[in-house]
Design a protein that fits this description.
heterodimer; A: alpha/beta; three-stranded parallel sheet; about 45% helix; B: about 425 residues; alpha+beta; 16-stranded antiparallel beta barrel; 4 helices
């Protein structure tokens, strides 16, 4: 191969590459960082959206390695839905690699679902990495409060309507149906959780604060000594003693964290190990947002009910 | 609901009358239960009313197109960030690569028999405008002068979906060459990369275009990259000559296959051509093949098997030393490869091994004890946190020139600030 051949090959890139990203699809092409967001977009968008999510719900959403196939999906997307804040730090290299300028921050095709959500644990003082993998803007796991799901669904409806105004009536109708069902379910979930208001549980990672607030439960201590730092022997000892002294009924964790430590503590103390879904489809029982919340609430109720004082 | 409460209270009253022996304590508990239930009912009634009101508002309100999309400065957390000029400051990160090395080599080389600050990377990056982004990496060492490792503009303003990079960067060839040292699975570069392209990989100034191929299937994605870069290679590399004004050319085709949610495979092909001397002829051509298999055994246990092979076609002439009356015939087709197996078996621990083989370029085969260098490496990695890790590595090398070496590395790699590499 000589130099001219190489130059021809370079020029050929322009011809070979797809000049019409997403143009083939009549539906709004949506890429969501998390499966939960993808599920909400599907619920509101119905038949007029095509949704792909990047992070497998079976993995820790903080540490996703986007793949070339994810880059291609993002390159062809009309809308990019993400958690905002600093949950998915991998989204920036993903967007850079995709180079789809419509999805860049502040552009029409970007939707930051944290907008309008009442955030918890927002630092009120300077923070540093000495405190672990701390979140600068507040705890980012806000989708686990169904009250916040209302805000998120509304934002999705608004954004889809802006991108695809001809189907806005459908999006609005889907939103209303979702909100109505959500209201019914919220009442149902609150009723189920009411007897356990004020009870304390232990977490593995600090990702349940919104669910705990909704459930009226407390979660002050975690197996991780600092966010993102795996359990240390000292922390395991402390948690074991704390559970025993305070008669803590349950340890809550995601399915993607190692369970050996949790189970060992549970065995020693008699506390229940409760695996909850952080995102839709993390476990088979969490097929969509309602199923996920149904499952999470029922698991908490079961664990606390079995260990009622 | 109120009737239900009255009924419950009445029942409780009857129960109290019928069970005179019930203790005061039990009565008090029952009263508390009733009070809690009453409060709950009131809360639920309030919730239902509020929800009904909200539904009525939504149903009666004329549907309006969405308001303009909130931008970064309009709500939530971004108020602080966008409201400050500091939002325009580049992202800044510092990476420190500290390596202790003990070997049998007598050379006073970089890091030999001492602990060295092998590399301190100062990383800056930020969007320039809606069309482009600038990334700069300057590296410092306690053994070498400061070095501009990368300084390139990524441009998205080309006809979609092309992406261009211009400046000094790590060209997308193979696997190990394109990534920074802190992302390597081993302390050192694979021998074939160090020998042919440079001990610290390859960073050259040039221009590069990349884009995905428009294929009808979705199971496999194909990304084609092509570029022109200045001549020469990295420190100690032998693939091309050292004349920088003679450009080299490269192309890479990456084929990526999502096998399942937990497994993927990548097959890549690289073509490189350049000059080995100061003329304009492209006498050296190299073909690279890479194959990587990734399998997430569990969400925290990851197995990676990565392989790279480089074959050269060098068009070497016979070197004649008239005074000595000798002829030297260098190899026309040297080659090398490595295979690496890495297993992250817990959130904090990983281990792996690598086998290397590489045939030297500029050595008369007649003077060699064996066809090429071979090396076996084994390592253990401790991930202290997301931003710090420690690695202990042992490497045994048999040199083509004869002799061998045993080297032990201890590496500490830490990062502060914002640290983002482009995706591989």
């Amino acid at each position: 191969m000589n130099r001219h051949t190489m130059l021809c090959a370079l020029a050929g890139l322009a011809v070979l590459s797809d000049p019409r990203p997403g143009a083939a699809a009549e539906r709004v092409n949506v890429v969501a960082t998390l499966s939960t967001f993808g599920d909400l977009v599907s619920t509101v968008g119905g038949d007029y959206v095509q949704v792909a999510s990047i992070a497998s719900p079976k993995f820790n959403p903080h540490f996703i390695e986007p793949k070339p196939s994810d880059v291609l999906k993002t390159k062809r997307a009309d809308l990019f839905v993400h958690a905002g804040l600093d949950l998915e730090l991998w989204r920036w290299p993903l967007l850079d690699a995709a180079g789809n300028r419509r999805l860049f921050q502040g552009q029409e095709g970007e939707l930051d679902l944290s907008q309008g959500v009442k955030l918890l644990e927002v630092p009120t003082r300077p923070v540093s990495r000495a405190e672990g993998d701390i979140h600068l803007y507040g705890n980012p796991h806000y989708w686990l409060s169904p009250e916040n799901a209302k805000t998120m669904a509304q934002a999705i409806c608004d954004k889809l309507s802006a991108i695809d105004p001809q189907h806005q009536d459908t999006y609005h109708a889907n939103l209303l149906a979702f909100l109505a069902q959500l209201d019914r379910k919220i009442a149902e979930w609150r009723l189920a959780l009411a007897p356990y208001k004020g009870r304390e549980v232990i977490g593995y990672h600090n990702s349940w604060v919104y669910l705990m607030e909704f459930a009226g439960l407390k979660m002050h201590h975690f197996l991780e000594p600092k966010p993102g730092i795996p359990p240390t022997p000292q922390q395991v000892q402390f948690i074991t003693q704390y559970i025993t002294a305070q008669r803590i009924p349950a340890i809550v964790q995601e399915s993607f964290f190692p369970s050996q430590t949790t189970k060992a503590i549970a065995k020693r103390t008699g506390a229940k190990t409760v695996f909850l879904c952080q995102n839709v489809r993390e476990l088979p029982a969490c097929a969509d947002y309602f199923a996920m919340m149904d499952y999470n609430v029922s698991q908490v109720v079961d664990a606390l009910g079995q260990t009622a004082r | 609901m109120s009737s239900l409460i009255i009924f419950i209270i009445a029942c409780i009253g009857f129960a109290q009358a019928g069970w005179a022996e019930v203790s005061d304590q039990q009565v008090a508990q029952l009263n508390q239960s009733v009070q809690r239930l009453s409060q709950l009912v009131e809360e639920l009634q309030g919730t239902v009313q509020a929800q009904q009101q909200r539904l009525a508002e939504l149903e009666t309100a004329k549907w309006q197109p969405a308001a303009p999309v909130p931008t970064a400065g309009q709500a939530g957390l971004s108020q602080q960030a966008a409201g400050s000029l500091s939002a325009f400051n580049p992202e800044i990160g510092v990476l420190a690569d500290i390596v202790g090395q003990v070997s049998e080599s007598s050379a006073d080389g970089e890091g030999n028999d001492k602990i060295s600050a092998r590399e301190m990377e100062l990383v800056f990056g930020h969007p320039i405008d809606p069309y482009s982004r600038l990334d700069v990496t300057a590296s410092f060492s306690d053994f070498e002068a400061a070095n501009l490792e990368e300084a390139y503009v990524t441009h998205w303003g080309l006809p979609e979906p092309l992406r261009a990079r211009i400046g000094r960067f790590k060209p997308k060839v193979g696997k190990a060459v394109a990534i920074h040292r802190d992302s390597l699975d081993t302390v050192d570069e694979p021998l074939v990369v160090a020998s042919y392209l440079g001990a610290e990989g390859l960073s050259r100034t040039g221009v590069e275009l990349s884009g995905f191929l428009p294929v009808p299937w979705t199971a496999v994605t194909h990304e084609l990259t092509g570029g022109v870069m200045e001549g020469g290679v990295g420190e100690g590399g032998t693939l091309f000559g050292s004349i920088r004004r003679r450009p080299s050319y490269y192309a890479h085709l990456k084929n990526f296959w999502d096998i399942s949610d937990v497994a993927n495979a990548e097959l890549g092909a690289t073509y490189l051509t350049g000059s080995k001397d100061d003329d304009a002829d492209l006498e050296v051509q190299a073909l690279g093949l890479d194959a990587t298999l990734m399998h997430y055994v569990t969400p925290t246990n990851k197995l990676k098997w990565q392989n790279e092979l480089y074959l050269q076609e060098r068009d070497e002439a016979v070197s004649v030393d008239a005074d000595a009356g000798t002829e030297t015939l260098f190899r026309d087709t040297p080659w090398g490869l490595y295979t690496l197996l890495d297993y992250r078996f817990s959130p904090r621990l990983g281990a792996g091994g690598r086998f290397d083989y590489v045939e030297p370029v500029d050595v008369d085969p007649a003077r060699l004890a064996r066809a090429g260098d071979t090396a076996w490496s084994g390592y253990l990695t401790f991930y202290q946190s997301e931003f710090a890790r420690w690695r202990l590595q042992y490497r045994h090398t048999n040199f083509a020139r004869g002799g061998d070496d045993n080297t032990v590395f201890l590496q500490g790699m830490v990062a502060i600030g914002v640290h983002k590499h482009q995706l591989q």
